[in-house]
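Let's sit down with a protein and look at its sequence and fold side by side. Once you have written the record down, we can walk along the chain together.
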Amino acid sequence: MGWLIKPGRGHKPDYVLMIAVGVLMSIALVMMYSISPVLSYKLLGSTSRNFYFYGQLFSTSVALIVGVVASKIYFPNWKKWSLPLLVITIVALSIVMLPGLGFTKNGATRWIRLGPASFQPAELLKLTAIIYLAAWFESRREKMQNWREVLVPFALMFAAASVVIVIIQRDMGTMMVLAASMLGLYFVAGAPIKQYGALLAGTLTAGVVAILAFPHRMERLLVFLDPSKDPTNTGYHINQALIAIGSGGVLGRGLGHSYQIYGYLPEAANDSIFAVIGEEFGLLGAIVIIGLFALVVQRGLLIAKHAPDTFSRLLALGITLWLGFQALINIAAMLSLVPLTGIPLPFISYGGSSLMLSLIGIGILLNISKYTDLTHTNREEAHANSSERRRVRRTHTTNPGDARRTA
């Protein structure tokens, strides 16, 4: 078990991050308890009125255990395991494509059936790709200018992930989150501006082609440009989400008083949970959710800034970008600021795969924070700033008579 903890004592983990994530998970349980009677009746009839609540409670319990274990693993070990983890993910993605082993839902085959549960390997790819790229960029930090050794292999990895997720699994939302994380890591690792610009231009061009090549994505784009277009068919989902958020007003209808969950709002417990929060808790509730995610991102960036080495800095940044962009895209889609993508809201949406992997990411951040004294760092910065101000004041006020004598 020596691989769990670094010899010697570290600092305390980032309790602010822990509290923010804990509040988000508590809100998820409250929301599932609120909407579970209606949604459970729709799914199972009268057999269980708390199906969604019990399912979320079980997923939360398992995810907490896994997250705690991840927080105990000394972060350099993830660098050793980066390649095996990526290989396992590739195998899982391949299993999805095998007939009879993949599970199809809403016309897309993205899941592996595990008894009564299902698992989406693309969620695992978000984490393992970040771990692998953090180790890969760290080993090539002296060669970032060499486009043959860095840009070309990275572009090939990026293209392979895009083909599997965007074309084969038809999951544009997951690829948007993964692309933001991968491109962010490449930029912070020291990518030359010209090479990064060329890669970014190629990515945007490929994204446009991926939208134009699939009719359902083109329809979503047209609905995004005009939400009133075909409100009973293609635009039904976004229109119901906007109705839910708009009807909540400033203070909301109240806990358990959502109208949209009565068969109107699709995926009310999953992708559309933010719209239900907006309906039941209004603008204030939505602001609280956005503020909590902003706090998670702020703490993640702070941990990355003061991380002890290059690998941990890139790893913390990648995890923060992943969770931050996924929350941003989900919330923006519910507000019709971006086209609908179908990705879960981290820590809140119903389901186990996303929650478990998100908590593993948080566990890694907490472990890195234990070897980064954020409290001491903040005190040092505050002390340095105050000392600098005192020094400047002394420069202007000490011994003004000397200047007159010199004159």
Observations:
- The radius of gyration is 24 Å.
